[in-house]
Amino acid sequence: MNKRVKKCFICCLVLSLFFTSFPQLLVYAENTEQPVQSKVSEEVEYVTFVEDETNELGMSEEKVVSVEEIAPYVILADGETLPQIKTDEVSVLSDDVVQLDTEDALYQYLKEQVVARNSQITVSVPIEINNKIGPVSAMTSAQEYTESCTGQEGDALKYGGVGYSVSTRSYTGATRVTYTYYMNYFSTAEQEKQLTSAVTCALASLNLNGKTDVEKVIAIHNYICDHVDYDYDGLSDSTNTVKYTAYGALCNGKAVCNGYAVLFYRMCKDAGLSVRIIPGTANGGHMHGIL
Question: Sign of the C-alpha dihedral, residues 134, 137, 143, 146?
C-alpha cells in the first residue's frame, strides 16, 4: 500500500469514528440539560407565589400560638374529691369567628355564649385589646357581677362550673388576634333550660308579690331547705359534677354547697333582690350567699 492510499484510509477511519460518536454526545447533553432547567423554573415560580401571598396578607409566615387552661372554680368540702371535667356533654357548638372591636362588645359576646353553654367560642380582636387584657382577663370580665346582671350571669357563671382552655393565634405583624375558647361546663344547655323553668315555677309558688325583701329572702331560703338535700353520697364521686350546680339542687333535689349557693343566688336575683356568692373556709370550705 503506497503512502497516499494509506493516508486516505486513516483519514476515512477517523471521520467515520467522529460522526458515529457525535449524535450520541448531542442526545446525552439534551437529556441531562432539560430536566435541570424544568426543575429550576418550577422552584422559582413556587417561591414567588408564596412570597406574593404573604405580602398580600401583610404578615409573615411565622404563626404565634399560645394555650392557657382555666378550671371551674369550686370549693371542696371535707372528704370531697376534685371533680373531673366532662367536655363531651356540652350541647351547643359555635365555630364562627366573630370580629369584635371594643372591650365591652367582647365581654358581652363572651357572656352571652357562656350563658348559652356554647362549647367553642372563637373571636377576633384588635391587637391593642389583646395587649391590654388578653383572653383570660376577657373571660373573667365577662363573668363579673353587676347589679343589672340576671340570675344566669355574674356569680352564677363565676361559681357555677365554667372552665375552659383558650388558644391565642396571630401572625407576626398582624393587626388582629384570634381567641378560641374550648369550654367545659358542669351543666348542659338543656339542663339550664330545665332549671329556668323550675325556678320560674318555684318563685310563682311563693307568691312574692307585695312582700318585703326580708320576707322574700326567708321564703326562698325555706323553699330551698324544704326541697334540696345535701349530696353526702356524691362527695367522693369525682364524675358527679352536676352536684355543684343549681340544676342539681333544684331539679335533682340534691347538691353540695356550690349548688345551694348558686340556686339561692339565681332565685334571689330573679326575684329582684341584690345578692352575691362568697367562698368561706369553715368546715373545710363552703360557698355562701350574702345579701
Answer: negative
Residue with cell 401583610: 58
Cα 241 to the center of its chain, rounded Å: 20
DSSP annotation of 197: H
SS3 275: coil
Neighbours of 249 (CB within 10 A): 30
Could you give the CA distance from residue 196 to residue 81 in angstroms, rounded to a whole number? 28
* 241-286 per-position pLDDT tens digit: 999 999 999 999 999 989 999 999 999 999 999 999 988 776 656 6
pLDDT at 80: 56
The pLDDT tens digits for 3-30 are: 554 454 445 444 444 444 444 333 333 3
CA distance 83 to 85: 6
Asked if 253 contacts 243 with a C-beta cutoff of 8 angstroms, the reply is no
The Cα–Cα gap between 36 and 14 comes to 34
Mean pLDDT across the chain, nearest whole number?
77
Q: List Cβ neighbours of 236 (8 Å cut-off, separation of 6 or more).
A: 79, 80, 81
- The Cα 66–Cα 165 span in angstroms is 11
Q: Cell triple for residue 216? A: 322574700
Backbone phi, psi, residue 208, to 5°: -80, -15
Global pTM value = 0.71
Cell of 112: 352571652
- For 145, phi and psi rounded to 5 degrees? -80, 140
**Helix, strand, or coil (residue 159):** coil
Identity of the residue numbered 34: Q
Give the chain's radius of gyration (CA, Å). 36
Going by the DSSP 8-state scheme, the letter that residue 72 receives in this structure is P
Q: What is the mean pLDDT of residues 64-69?
A: 75
